[in-house]
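Below sits the subject:
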Amino acid sequence: MPKKKSGEIPEKKPVQEVRAEIRSYIRNERDTILKKWLALKESIRSEDNRRSQFLDKKLKQDTKSLPMNILKFIGTLKKSVRHTMRYKGGTPYSIIRSLFLYWDADKSGRISADELVQCMQSLGVKVSYEECEEIVRYYAGLDLSGEMDYRELLQDILVGEPSVIAFVTQHEDEERDLNELRFEEVADKFVQMPSIVIKFLEAVRSYLAATMRNVGGTPFQHIQHLFQFYDYDYSNGLLPKELVLACRRKMKLQITLDQAQEIVDYYDRKGVGEIVPEKFIADVCIDVKPILTFTELSPRSIAASKKSLAVNPFIPKPFAAPTNKVLEKFKQDVKVALVNKVNKLGGTVASWIREAFITWDPNYTSKISRWDHLQGAAKRLGVTISDDEAKVLITCYDRFKTGEMHYQYLAQEIMTEDAHFLMDAKIVDREFSATSRTPPQVVQVLAKFKRAGDAYTSKSKGRLEARDVLHGTFLRFDASRSGRVEMDAVKAVARELKVADVSSADLMVALKWFDTNGSQTLDYNSFIRQIYGADVTTEALQLPTLRESVNLNTMLKRSFGDATASAAALSLSSTAPGAMDRSSSTGQFSMLGASLGGTSEMTRLPAIGSGFGVKASTLERNLEQVESQAVKMARMKMKRHKILAEKVKVERRLASIEDQKKKIIEDYKARKGK
């Protein structure tokens, strides 16, 4: 088309063409407006539908009533999803989908009740198989395959949760975890640390601080050494008994088996009944500063730490042996014996005590665990003690309840009461009465029991003796008939006798005072003797030991046979009494050898030291009985007198009891007749 030149007048279009263009323009404009209007109407209708769907969905969610187990299941998954998103990232959809795919054995995108149980256990959730079956049935709906999909579950999990891009603090997540309705988890019992665990960690930190000051090292090294040394079954953990041994023997802490069990339960993260070292070490070292860090403590913080350690139940208090009658008597006897040794042989009380105990403690451990070793040490001090007394002493000085006596405390107590060797020697009281050094609390308990017994005597108008009332009441609660009762039985006796104003602490002091064999029981015979004096019903009978004597004829029969023994007995019976001089045992056996047939038979006789298979002392004693009838008769007579004397005491006491019984019966009949 040729270009228009400037200044030229444009050519006019025909009218019909112009009209056609105008009509086309108007038609296009009208169609555009109509299309826009239709698009607007469609957009409005779509928004209305979406709004309606949202409101319907919200109404359905607001009015939806889920079973309790479903709500717990959703809450449990919400907590797990929040924790995973915070520390590992991801979205709820990706986390739930990966969880389903991991536990979906057949990779079908759906899980069964068995797979759900394994899934929940891996999350540390305590859930039963029946509860998992209920969850699967709920989300399976009309599907009878017994497996659930995660789409509807994901929608339930997202309800009430913030958007993925929203900022949520860790504190807000922890608040939702605490307030969420969910299944119980294994980690729930570890959320709040028990007070006893806090106190135990404080005591362990105190031990570590003292150990690192003395020998160096790190907390990890010392704790790891404890676990390795006292882990007797090599399980990489400590059982309650092993923890008790580690605390008492190594860390010198006071701990009971129940306390150890509670500590182990808190740190038993694997469910094997043992304390896990990793978590324990982390908690112990949580407040420990690095080695090169210098922290200046203020006087206020030091005072607060000392105050807290003073009331810590695991920190051992200054040791003091319990008051005990056997212990006081032993210290008194040792003091008398040592004063005599010092006066005769020289030296000091401290040197003699050290020599006596070091002899039986060659490793210098300052501990004795065997009662026979303690008897040997006491014998070197010049004091003889029985087995029960030795056990009592070990129990009194067993500071850490390990069955070992720390004898340095006994030595300190004895030397504290002893005068310095440069001072004038004090007069030592060699008499030890039943009430000597009795604690005031024990004296008060004895007086209260005596008043209770006297009250029963007054009520019976003298027909009952207070001693019999008290002794009989103890006998009723002594199930083992051993002459000793435990603490519960002592309390029962006090209630039965209506002993006024006596506390459990006072009864415990009395029990420790009258514990005569280290078994933590009260010897009520000794208890009654200290109140009313000695009596046949409360003291052990001192009867002579009856031994089965060995007859010479019997020994000969065992060694040489019946014929030879008969010939030897006939030869001995025909021998004059003067020939049986007991000071010449060799002559006796020479004569016996001659009667047995000369030197050939004599060579078969054993020497007196070998003694026919018995000890030499036993053989000599039996030969003396055979040789001298007068000595034998005198000894038997003394035995008989002892037995008869004890028999008279018992019969007298039984007669007294029978008289009291008759008086009580007569009084009862008289009152019943009235």
Confidence is low (pLDDT under 50) at residues 421-435, 546-552, 570-621. The two ends are 159 Å apart (CA to CA). The longest strand covers residues 367-368. The beta strands are 367-368, 405-406, 484-485, 522-523.
